[in-house]
Amino acid sequence: MSAQNANSRIQSSAEPEQVILASSGSYDAFFGALRHRESSGNYRAVNTLNFIGAYQFGEAALIDLGYVRRDRDVYDNNFSGGFTGKNGIRSVADFLANPAVQDDAAREWMQIMWRYIEADGLDRYAWRQVGGVTLSPSGMLAATHLLGPGALRQFVNSNGRADIRDPYGMPLRNYIVDLGGYSIPFAPRGPGLS
Ligand SMILES: [Ca+2]
Description:
With about 190 residues, the chain is mainly α. The chain has helices at about 5, 25-40, 60-65, 90-95, 100-120, 135-145, 150-155, 170-180; strands spanning about 130, 135. Strand 1 (about 130) and strand 2 (about 135) form a beta hairpin. Helix 5 crosses helix 6. Residues about 1-15 have low confidence and may be disordered. Calcium ion binds near residues 71, 73, 74, 78 and 80.
């Protein structure tokens, strides 16, 4: 989620069918594309819902990653539990000032999210067509980053018909398609790749 998304035009759910044949982009390029999508690559970005940094992490993700302590509401992005000091990060300001830590957190986050996807049994949909799009692992991870594994499950269970959007109106489907063309080293490889 990002301020950039807030400015995005709300798009029709009836989008043309898109097919991703293989992952042509590298894992590094995936992070660049995700940063661009989330914040235009601005490591100091804070959006109106208090998601922070180039990847627009929220409180719940930073708790899972061990940067923030749990408080009564892990989704309100007030970070009131405080920071743990992981990688020297003791405040939102520290996190925003440290691109290397944000990149490190993003890489760790992808592995955590893939385990969520596996725990939900959604990994078996990798490279399958759902609702007219190919679910590539990078697209699945991007969608899970946008709205969580529950939203990806809803997308799969509805065969892509559920119109799932982030609070700024960004459709889940856009993340699946636009960030779907990157290879993920710990996930199933696409057809035709060795
Ligand atoms: Ca909180």
